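ok so i was messing around last nite and threw this chain in just to see what happens. nothing serious, just curious
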Amino acid sequence: MSTEQQFRNVMAECRDLFQKKLHDYGASWRILRPASLTDQLFIKAKRIRSLEIKKESLVGEGIRPEFIALINYGIVGLIQLELGYVDSIDVTPDEALEHYDRHATEALELMLRKNHDYDEAWRSMRVSSYTDFILTKLQRIKEIEDLQGETLVSEGIDSNYMDIINYAVFGAIKLMGN
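result:
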């Protein structure tokens, strides 16, 4: 199966979960301020790293569901950057899905461009490297947030979210069936 099709399959799985959570909770994530969202992504990535090192989960959930969560929270991050945070839910589930689909498509398009230039290098990488790269991107986001977005030469938070999404998709692909 091609990288594009594998990516689309993982994104469809993520969208299905996102849609079900929208049903259960609405767009409750709209209240998350940027730093809180960064911390949510951080705890998911740290859990992956912990499980990779310890090789045991006392909660019973494995690594792959955390990559799925990183993808969905990464898209939530892009939506929040676009719309800003609010004190109460201000989008319908259908509106939230429209935003989700647009950002998921942008992530796919970015992955296709980078995958072309890097010639499928992700396939030779270890899953633990995706985890470390995600944690690095999150540290960069924290630094940018601390600078109130005033960077000199660096990409913005949105670019880091996109990279997190794409690394997490690669992790989910590699762990398919695990």
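not much to say yet. The chain is about 70% helix and 0% strand.
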